[in-house]
UniProtKB/TrEMBL annotation, chain B:
PANTHER family in the cross-refs: HEMIN IMPORT ATP-BINDING PROTEIN HMUV
Domain of life from the UniProt record: Bacteria
Alphabetized Gene3D superfamilies for the sequence: P-loop containing nucleotide triphosphate hydrolases (3.40.50.300)
Residue ranges constituting the ABC transporter domain according to the UniProt record: 21-257
This protein's record includes keyword Nucleus: no
Annotated organism of origin: Thermogemmatispora tikiterensis
Protein name per the record: ABC transporter domain-containing protein
InterPro entries per record: AAA+_ATPase, ABC_transporter-like_ATP-bd, ABC_transporter-like_CS, P-loop_NTPase
Amino acid sequence: MKIETRTTQESPALATTTATTLADAKAVHVRRRLTPLIFTALLLLLPLTLLAAVSTGSTAIPFATVLQILLDGSHLLHFRESWDPALAIIIWDLRLPEALGAALVGAGLAVAGVLFQGMLRNPLADPFLMGTSSGAALGAVIAFILPLDTTYGLFFSLTPLLAFSGALLTVLLVYAIARVGGRTPVVTLLLAGVVMNALLVAVQTLILTLSPQAQFNLQALFNWLSGGISVNSWWPVVIVGSLIVAGIGGALVLGQVLDAFALGEEGAAHLGLRVEWYKFLLIMLGSLLTAAAVSISGLIGFVGLVTPHMLRLLIGPRHRPLIAASALGGASFLTLADLLARTVIAPAVLPVGVFTALIGAPFFLYLLRQSKKEYRWS
Amino acid sequence: MVVNLRPESWNVSAAGGLPLLEVRHVTFGYELQPVFFDVCLQLAAGEMVGLLGPNGSGKTTLLRLLSGVLRPTQGEIRLQGRELDRWRRRELARVVAVVPQELHIPFDFTVEQLVALGRLPFVGLLGSYGPQDRARIEAAMQVTGVAALAKRPFNELSGGERQRVLVAMALAQQPRLLLLDEPTAHLDIRYQIEVLELVQRLNREHGLTVLAAMHDLNLAARYFPRLVLFQRGIVADGTPATVLEPRLLSRVYGIAVQVGIVRGTAHFSVVPPGSREAQEAEEEMAALEPPPRVFVMAGGGSGERVMRALADWHIPFLAGVLNMGDSDHTLALRLASRVLTEQPYAPLSQAALEELRTALTTVETLIICPMYVGPGNVALLGEALTAARQGCRVLLVAPETAATEPSDMAFIPDSESQELSLLLARTGIAARDYTGGEATRLVEQLLQAGARVISRLTEVLALSAA
């Protein structure tokens, strides 16, 4: 038997740093120092965009006046009323609810995006992946064609209610379909979502084709489907607001779970997590946020996709800070988009969904081309 | 000639006491297809065990069962004396840590952030990291030599560095048992050594119990004082000297190998063939051993008694054709000189049948165990009939229950046909015939061709040895 003898290095040097990866280390280091700065910027940006949104419109109101009216109205400070009382009504009853609504929708969608991206371990996931959009749309269509007035008094309108229920019911159904033998494999979940989407869109088309009512409301429905913040009273803001704030709170609690999910479901299980239970919680939380947002905004794309993605590049992947930053960033982004949608071709109003897509899609494609190899479905 | 690197740790398990991990008669299957039957295994605290086996042998599945991700279909697994089902996931994560083969993470976590995740079982979801957790994380990174990489993104590291980070993450869990799934599979030779040296150090200096699935036999021989050879069941369990037995390996892996100690080293090396010398050596080795003259047909555990008895009597035999995953197959791998093998749950292929035909021409005795006969394996009986007609002695082993029916023996048959039906009854084939009568007809023809029905093992042995 001839076997060549050779010596192997018994204990090769540990930790060796190569020059090529030093740059990355530096990037991470820079990111670390930037994080507090970015949070400060986001915290400043949100009130500023809100202020801008409230002051801009068919009648421009100067910032100072807006501030005075708001502070006076909230009884924090008292100013001598030197402004047209109509302005106070415009601000309190029209612009502020709408601006806050936009901010809430933006925050909700962005956080839902973080949840789905983290749970599915894919930076390309978005809140509508599980069939929420088609469920909400179907709910809205039903509301539009029902032979009832869509608005009951000032309290609530049927559209948000049915959109919200449609979205949640669809996700529950998708989840139930995808559940096999006590497990819900991600691939099955996604496929079930796709199929359910197709089915609901077909039902929606069928209803629209057959219903005589549809002719009248088609324009309104089109506007709803392309996304637009439609808030004209405080009630929806309060209801949706509390849902979204609670949802974001829940998401912050589950931040660590999402970090563990980055290791894959089995990796997370090895760290002591009950994976299926948390998967269910994450899906439900994400869908609740999405449904709440969709109920007052219609279908607004890209906020939930782009916001978490961009902030992850800026502050890193840890989910607790990412959720907080995405909530702030999404809120500012959508408030701004809503502001632009109202002003660009004023007095006509563009659907916000068009705006977010026009900004979001090219930006996203740019990111995609920048780092193609990072996106692996696993 | 046996060079054991760590005899004392092997003795720990032999000494007894409560084992850290105990696998009791575990059977596992996905859906209806069992992956393995009746696996028993014990790990004592402080052991370092390598789990060997070809691709698809069920190594990874066994590890997943041990980590609690999968549940056994039958049998139980006990950790520190408590059944695995009774552990809460979080408790379990403080005792057992798993190092995966590799990790793809979609996001840019830094090394430190990943290692910190290992503290989750202690910190909880709402809690925050205290100074003790920080110290643990730091210590885990120090021990594995990744402290210098703490701020680097995990995805930018080399394979060996990543593997060390994964080990560091597992160490942050302060486990007693470390399970590794082919930790060196994607590494080049330098990192393979580096990672295994690290694991060995953790075992020796920190008393960590290690069970690692290994595909590299040489590395396994070098670093693991105890090896378990797995092929849908445990084929061998012991020191490298007993497990790395060339004939055993060649049966399990399906390729002839040589095992020896390379000059200047202290461990076994396994060398696959390739050179003419290796083949010559193999032929030489084969010439030393008398060619087996007995062939065993079995399946579903029916061959256990016969095969064990033959091995105890040092009667070399061939076995087949057996499906992988069949408990008789696992046993035959351990005991037979050669095993004719078919894919799991596949009906016998043409190629396997031809191999069987050739093998049957080389033996004098064919033992047919009381196995169930279905459409998948009925061809075995057809080949047996051909062999019987060509003069091979065929022994039909009667099932154990039939052996205790003396009334049949006392009965004196009137005619030849009555005698035949009596013999047929003794084989008990009718109860095991799932082919709608074809198997019974073949057995009847075998009996007509001179096959004998045997109830006693001693008789089988005497006839086989003759």
